[in-house]
Structures are given as C-alpha cells and as structure tokens.
C-alpha cells in the first residue's frame, strides 16, 4: 500500500509520498503519465530525494534518450525525472499553444509542481535544452541550475528549419510511409536504445507531433538573447562535436551570454547515451555545486516521489 503522508495539493489531485525501492542494488525505474496543467505528460522517474533534476529530450525523440545519464545521476544520489516534449494523444485537435520552447519550459516548471518539489536543475538536449533555458527565464527562483546540451540558437536554427518543414509534411501527408515504417520497426531487435527510440517515435500521436512541429515554426524556439543574458543561475553547457544539426558556435555563444556558465566539450551526440561516464564527472560536479548553494539547500530537504498510484 502506498503511503499518502506528506501530501501537498496539485490542482484537484494530490501526489503521494512513496518510498523508493531498489531492484537488485540498482535504482528503480518508474514510468507512466502525470497530469501537468491539465494535459497528460509522459514521464520516467529515477531515484528519490530533494536534489531534483528534470530532463527534456531532443526535438522529436522521446524521454527515453535521456535515460542512460538519468540512471547514472540517480545512482549518484540525484532524483531525476525525464519528460516527453510530445504530449499524450487526447480527444479533439492538438493545441498549438502547447508547443514552443516556452510552452515546454512552462511544463518543466509545472512538472516540478506536480512532483511537489520546491526547486530543480532543469536540463535537456536540443529543443529540451532550449526549454530548460525558458524554465530558467520563467521561474529563476525555483531553478537551481541548468544543463544545456546542444542548444538550438541562431546558427543551428537555419539547419533545423527545413527539417521541421519536412517533418510536418511527413506527419500530415506521409502517414502511409509511417505505417510501413511501423511494420518494419516491429522486426528490429528490442535490446538497444536506438530501436526503442524508433518505436517511441512511430508510436507517438501523429496529431501531437504535427502540432509540435507547427508550434515551433510559428512560435518561439528559444529565448531571445536579451532574456538569455538575464539568466543568473549556474549553467553547464555541453557543446557537442561532430553534430550535423547543432552548431558548436551556438553553445559557445550561449556560454558568453550566461554570466555563470561552464562550457564542456562532448565528443558526439551519442556520448550521453552510450559512454555516460565520459561526461558524468563534470555533470555530477556541477550538480553538487548547484545544490550546495545556501539558498538551494533549505529548499531541497524533501521532495516526494511521483509514486506508482499517481502514474497512469
């Protein structure tokens, strides 16, 4: 039976306090959906405690892409929640207002509320990185720091724009292609991350995916430079080498824009997915410093787990 002690209200629902159980000495993984600002958001949770890290994925990939380093951080004592960018399918049309870097950043803060947390480090990759910047702009008093991997800023957006156009055509006119792709994906081995990411991509709501792409084309894909310069919280910027879609100059420019930033080179976009420990010492060091700030310590004493009964 799940305990309901330590509950705080979230809209009309409450989040139960659940003790973490471990599986064969490893951090337990929980996944499902949680209601954030009236919409169902897919999440996966690792670890427990008040040192909370919320991670968002790249453009059209699922939260699963962040699981390798989320698990590593949880094993180091952090409470990590990975969230999707694309919302769960719902009755009726998708709402374009749900989809922009700003909207996703707002959901990151909303997820913090749903968890019952006071403060978090927000992080992400590509679009998720931009959303973390938006979260820091939106609510700096609840942002202990940000981890920004391969942001999409002035240089990269020129590369991403035609990809968004092609993706929109695929989701609206290319459904037969996606149907055949799903059939083919069913024959792929299920024991590797790439296959599971393909399955997640092909299983997501086409309506919501199209809305995400259209929302990014019409809305804000990143905070403007003036707002970025106002972000005073500590920032770890991961500049990814050999990435055809994310220009390293954007990460370097962001490091100049943010007054309290560290720039760390990452060999490839796959490093945090396959060789986490090549980067994790820098990330863990950054997180330890961020959560050691006096104004942060008093607000990280207790953060309940989302809990199996709350996930649906």
TrEMBL record:
> In the record, what terms sit under GO molecular function?
hydrolase activity
As recorded in UniProt, coiled-coil segments are: none
The protein in question is named Hydrolase (Alpha/beta fold)
Q: Which InterPro entries match?
A: AB_hydrolase, AB_hydrolase_1, AB_hydrolase_fold
Chain ranges passing through the membrane:
none
Specify whether Hydrolase is a keyword of the entry: yes
Organism the protein comes from: Hoyosella rhizosphaerae
| Keywords linked to the UniProt accession | Hydrolase
Q: Where is the signal peptide, in residue numbers?
A: none
Domain (AB hydrolase-1): residue spans on this chain = 52-266
Q: Name one Pfam family in it.
A: Abhydrolase_1
User: Which domain of life does the UniProt lineage start with?
Assistant: Bacteria
């Amino acid at each position: 039976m799940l305990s309901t002690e330590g509950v705080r209200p979230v809209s009309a629902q409450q989040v139960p306090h659940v003790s973490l159980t471990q599986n064969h000495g490893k951090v337990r993984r929980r996944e499902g959906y949680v209601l954030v600002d009236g919409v169902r958001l897919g999440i996966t949770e690792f670890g427990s405690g008040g040192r909370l890290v919320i991670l968002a994925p790249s453009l059209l990939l699922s939260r699963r892409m962040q699981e390798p380093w989320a698990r590593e951080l949880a094993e180091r004592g952090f409470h990590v929640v990975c969230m999707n960018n694309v919302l769960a399918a719902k009755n009726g049309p998708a709402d374009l207002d749900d989809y922009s870097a700003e909207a996703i950043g707002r959901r990151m803060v909303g997820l913090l509320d749903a968890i019952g947390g006071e403060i978090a480090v927000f992080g992400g990759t590509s679009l998720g990185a931009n959303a973390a910047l938006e979260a820091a702009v939106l609510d700096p008093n609840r942002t202990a720091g940000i981890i920004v991997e391969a942001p999409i800023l002035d240089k990269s957006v020129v590369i991403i724009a035609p990809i968004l156009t092609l993706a929109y055509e695929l989701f609206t006119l290319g459904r037969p292609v996606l149907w055949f792709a799903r059939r083919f994906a069913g024959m792929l081995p299920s024991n590797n991350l790439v296959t599971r990411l393909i399955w997640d991509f092909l299983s997501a709501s086409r309506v919501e995916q199209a809305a995400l792409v259209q929302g990014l084309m019409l809305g804000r894909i990143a905070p403007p430079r003036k707002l970025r310069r106002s972000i005073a919280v500590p920032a770890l910027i991961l500049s990814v080498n050999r990435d055809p879609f994310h220009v390293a100059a954007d990460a370097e420019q962001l490091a100049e824009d943010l007054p309290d930033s560290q720039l760390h080179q990452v060999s490839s976009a796959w490093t945090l997915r396959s060789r986490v420990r090549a980067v994790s010492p820098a990330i863990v060091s950054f997180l330890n410093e961020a959560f050691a700030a006096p104004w942060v310590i008093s607000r990280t004493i207790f953060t309940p787990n989302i809990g199996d009964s709350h996930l649906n």
